[in-house]
Amino acid sequence: MRKLAIYHLETLLWIARLGTFRAAAERLGTTQPAISARVREIESQLGIAVFRREGRGVVLTARGRQLVQDCEPLLAGFERALMQAGDYAGATGVVRLGAGEIAAASCLPGFVHEVERDLPGVTLEVELDLTARMLQQLLGGTSDLVFLAGPAASPGLATMPIGAVSLAWVGSAQTAARGLAEPLPLWTLPPHSPIHQTFRDELAGGRIRASSVNTCNNVRSMVEIVAGGRGAAVLPEIMVRDELADGTLVELAPRPERTIQFEAAIRSAEQDPLILELFRRAGALRIG
Fold first, then answer.
1. Domains of the chain
2. Which of 65, 248, 266, 273 has an alpha carbon within 20 to 30 A of 94's alpha carbon?
3. What is the pLDDT of residues 152-210, one digit of tens each?
């Protein structure tokens, strides 16, 4: 009979986190049959049922839940000791990052460069998305570390502030020349974006009147739309800084007083020493 190894425990913990053998296989870079075989080896060695099927997923049995609770800190401590002994230089693994457009255009490139330089064995998988979906993926275990517009309030999250960006009402020079007497087509991010709420507050204040309110989930696309003379938008200043400098866009109204705060976030229960180290490094970033 095969003895249990570190990879058995790692498999157990990832199934417990993600809820399916398939998701654990994707996370660990192996196949679903290999995951199933590891679970059989665990249960055969221990003589207990660790999981039971429920719908399309699996849930821990009572004894399986106790096993996870006992093993998770042990595995994390073992990995942390090995990484700290080598100052994390020998760290390996795939880390899944989530970021919005603003973070991707500002602090993310420097963070990626630092990881590539200091942790060459670590592979980063970066996905760009909106805040609401990034939160879902993080809490669901399919992302490890995200950079998002906050504040993000959830008992399942640990967050660290990384700065703030200001917003600006912008349009083309032609739009500005026509003046603000007539209502304009306005553009904004979808309702679940923190910027959308600022847009709504500004609209209620009457600074700019809308002939229509349109949404787009891509800031760069909105920049192109309003630069082409097709309305106005309230956008992150950092994303239109170059266009304001060269005159492609101009500011149409006073800037909103509210700034958008940004945070790095991980799961509050995270114990993977590599993720915790990257979270620590993320805390030194400054967006904007």
1. 6-85 (1.10.10.10), 93-164+261-282 (3.40.190.10), 167-258 (3.40.190.10)
2. 65
3. 878 889 999 999 999 999 999 999 988 777 898 999 998 888 888 889 988 888 778 88
